[in-house]
Amino acid sequence: MRPLTNKLTKVKATISSLSASGYTYIPAGLMWGWRTLDEKQPFTEAKGPFAKNTQKVMILMSDGANTRSKNGKAHTGWDVNAANKEMNTLCNKIKKDEIEIYTIAYDIKDKATKNRMRSCATDPSKFFDAANASQLNKAFQAIGANLIRLRLTH
Q1: Which ranges of the chain have pLDDT less than 50?
Q2: What integer pLDDT is reported at residue 51 of this predicted model?
Q3: Cα–Cα distance, 58 to 95 (Å, whole number)
Q4: For 21-153, which CATH class?
Q5: 3-state SS of 30-99?
Q6: Structure confidence at residue 50 (pLDDT)
Q7: SS3 130
Q8: Quick one: pLDDT at residue 49?
Q9: Could you tell me the sign of the dihedral formed by the alpha carbons of 35, 88, 62, 74, in that order?
Q10: How would you label 53-66 residue by residue, b for 16+ Cβ within 10 Å and e otherwise?
Q11: Residues 6 or more apart whose Cβ sits within 8 Å of residue 99
């Protein structure tokens, strides 16, 4: 985890250190992303002199459907329906908290998962279906361009 920061070198180092392990539990990413964007513990970096004039934005990217679920304190269960329900609940709560959500389905073949990712986005225009690295790059470019436009006009 990396708290909110404007130190791009540290952000890139954190991203470079990530590795996939074969299982997916999207609600965990949603929850930790949400925690970094609110002003409560454990991350309070969203507070600050510009907090009231800042649009909070989350980008959720996944390369697969939920394959794990919560099982006590860990995410070692196999109840995909529970994971999908939790994902939907969290997406709605995050949007209700006035956080804009962009979603990217990266090389996902499952139509139901793509629909879930589309529903999680703030609106359908903030959903991207990227079948390969080139499309993934274009999705991030489009999101970046939209955020710059938002910043200049907001």
Answers
A1: 153-154
A2: 63
A3: 10
A4: alpha beta
A5: HHHHHHHHCCCCCCCCCCCCCHHHCCEEEEEEECCCCCCEEECCEEEECCHHHHHHHHHHHHHHHHHCCE
A6: 58
A7: strand
A8: 58
A9: positive
A10: eeebbbbbbbebbb
A11: 34, 37, 56, 57, 58
- Side chain identity, residue 118: R
Q: Give the C-alpha distances (Å, rounded to integers) separating 61 from 33, 51, 72, 104.
A: 11, 25, 25, 5
**Which candidate, 30, 42, 36, places its Cα nearest to that of 56?**
36
Using alpha carbons, select from 1, 3, 27 the residue that is nearest to residue 92: 27
The C-alpha angle 19, 21, 27, rounded to 5 degrees, equals 95
Q: Which amino acid is at 16?
A: S
Residue 138 has what pLDDT?
98
How many other CB atoms are there within 10 angstroms of residue 147's CB atom?
15
